[in-house]
Amino acid sequence: MSEESSSAYVHEKKAGHTIEVLPVDDTVHDEVFGDIEGKNVPNYRNVGWIGTAGLMMKSMIGLGVLSIPAVFDVLGLIPGVICLIAIATMTTWSNYVVGQFKLAHPDMYMIDDAGSIMFGKAGREALAVCYILFQTFCAGSGMLSISISLNAISEHAICTAGFVVVALLIVLCVASVRTLHKLSPLAWIGLVSIITAILIVTIAVSLQDRPAAAPQNGLPFTSDYKLFGSPSFAQAASALSSLVFAYAGTPSFFGLVSEMRDPRKYTRALIVCNSVVTCAYVVIGVVVYYYCGSYVSSPALGSAGPLLKKIAYGIALPGLIMSSTLLTHLPAKYIFVRALRGSKHLVANTWQHWASWLGAVAGCGIFSYIIASAIPVFGPLVSLVGALLGTLMCMQPMGCMWLYDNYSRGKEAPTVMWRLKVVWAVFIIVMGSFLMVAGTYGAVLDIQSAMSVGGTTTPWGCADNSGTVKSS
Q1: Among candidates 403, 414, 334, which has minimal Cα distance to 104?
Q2: Which pairing describes strands 27-30 and 17-21: parallel, antiparallel, or unpaired?
Q3: Which residues pair with 18 in a beta bridge?
Q4: What are residue 366's phi and psi, to 5 degrees?
Q5: Based on the structure, what is the number of domains in the chain?
Q6: Could you tell me the pLDDT band of residue 468, with boundaries at 50, 70 and 90?
Q7: Cα 419 to Cα 111: distance, rounded to the nearest angstrom
Q8: Does residue 54 lie in a domain region?
Q9: Deepest of 115, 140, 144, 379, by most Cβ within 10 A of its Cβ?
Q10: What's residue 40's pLDDT?
């Protein structure tokens, strides 16, 4: 029998708490979900570490990866790569702290529980609001990405508002699956599809004569990539916020570790996830920017021309659907668990259970749909939410979580290593706060610029959002 399917019931003492490794079939009590009775009810603690790694990577890698070449265009190739690796290091540590905090506090489910443990009711409610807003705004962005894909594939066959409704219906159907264990195979399919699409574009731009957005006549094309950029403070801050946003899967990791069969294997899944994600970001960002320079199309899947744009969007579609699905499923699961926690309806197939679950999924999905359809300056607004909430979800709380669990114990007999870890935790809090304020400032300027030049779209509009030109 494999390590992940073992029916052995394991207990481990850590920081005064009992860590439970759930078997698949036995009736056991979980600190969050209560009594789980194996085959007769949904098993919310049944995700192995491989499935967790897939869910982690899918929560990070989406169409937003193709914003990285634009970041390199702002910062320059060398500073861009350095900044990307620095952000990767900081967010990897933050993600690691999430797993350690869960082991020390098995009753923690989402980030609001961590806020409650550290700061009481005020911390709980503040982080709960930030979490819901961040995830649902990102889910709305995902629905727009699906509509862009459908527009590109079909050459704008119907009104864009109709495609957003189609995206909503697809996401609601898939996100209503109750357990992450059943979603993890779909996450792997989505991950393979989005990476394949991105690699197609990456290879294509290295082989073509010139990017699709570059002038098509005149002298032979020479990429205008820069090794070092000269951005303004606001431009640099906005670029750094985009890098943080590319690694902003951290708030989803709370829910993922809570549904793992063995939370002690969380770090193993995290190492696989962040290694693959960072390598993909560096390779894709460097190659696409090197060959396209400032002529990277927006969205960048169009950089290799109309035909490959259709192919890439078609292949990427399952990945875009899974991105929005996870970003709808996890906040819905949070609302569902918080509403029914402590009652038998949380894991029993009662009408109250189903009404609460489907109502939470529908509520989160419809809210994300309204955001995606109703806000004229959606792109800059998402940048604002990413800067304001994305950094807050990925850095400052994790620095506080490490200090909460380790500062008091370590100061009794401080070592050099303990002092260095304290300095690092404080640095994460300070740097996260700086990026949040500076990125928000840059995003506000972007919104003002978009509105001043008329760069807005009509709410529930029909205009093509993919930049596709219909063939005659």
Answers
A1: 403
A2: unpaired
A3: 13
A4: -70, -40
A5: 1
A6: low
A7: 26
A8: yes
A9: 140
A10: 66
Task: Kindly state the tokens that stand for 429.
Answer: 């809090």
Residue 35, classed as helix, strand or coil, is strand
Of 145, 164, 137, 142, which Cα lies nearest the Cα of 382?
Answer: 137
**Closest Cα partner for 366 from 167, 147, 145, 204?**
167
**With contact defined as beta carbons under 8 Å apart, do 53 and 188 qualify?**
no
Indicate whether 98 belongs to any domain.
yes
Instruction: DSSP for 334-374, please give it.
Output: HHHHHHHTTSGGGTS--HHHHHHHHHHHHHHHHHHHHHHHH
Domain CATH for 280: 1.10.4160.10
On whether residue 431 sits in a domain, the answer given is no
pLDDT 10s digits, 329-388: 999 999 999 999 989 899 888 999 999 999 999 999 999 999 888 876 666 666 677 788
- The three-class DSSP label of residue 463 is coil
What pTM, to 2 d.p., does this model score?
0.89
In which domain, by residue range, is 232 found?
41-376
Angle at 14 between CA 256 and CA 121, to 5 degrees: 60
**Three-class secondary structure of residue 36 per DSSP:** strand
Residues in CB range of 208: below 8 A, 6 or more apart: 291, 304, 305
User: Using CA atoms, how far apart are residues 89 and 281, in angstroms rounded to an integer?
Assistant: 13
| pLDDT (tens digit per residue) in 24-40 | 445 567 889 887 765 56
Q: Which two tokens stand for residue 255?
A: 């829910």
Q: Phi and psi dihedrals of 348, rounded to 5?
A: -105, 145
Place of tokens 């989005």: 194
Gyration radius (Cα) of the chain, Å: 22
Query: How is residue 139 written in tokens?
Result: 């889910």
Terminal CA-to-CA distance of the chain, rounded, Å?
Answer: 60
Q: Which of 202-206, 260-264, 376-380, 397-401 has the lowest mean pLDDT?
A: 376-380
Indicate whether 5 pLDDT > 50: no
- pLDDT at residue 141 tops 90: no
Instruction: Name the residue type at position 151.
Output: N
Q: pLDDT at position 453, please? A: 65
- Grouping H, G, I as helix, E, B as strand and the rest as coil, residue 87 is helix
Residues forming beta bridges with residue 10, ordered by sequence position = 21
Q: What token pair was written down for 354? A: 């189903």
Do 249 and 88 form a contact (C-beta atoms < 8 A)? Answer: no
Domain presence at residue 386: no
What DSSP designation does 37 have?
E
Question: What is each CA distance from 40 to 25, 183, 319, in whole angstroms?
Answer: 9, 19, 31
Angle at 69 between CA 67 and CA 70, to 5 degrees: 65
- Give the helix ranges, DSSP H, for 259-350: 266-292, 306-340
How far is residue 119 CA from its own chain's centroid?
25
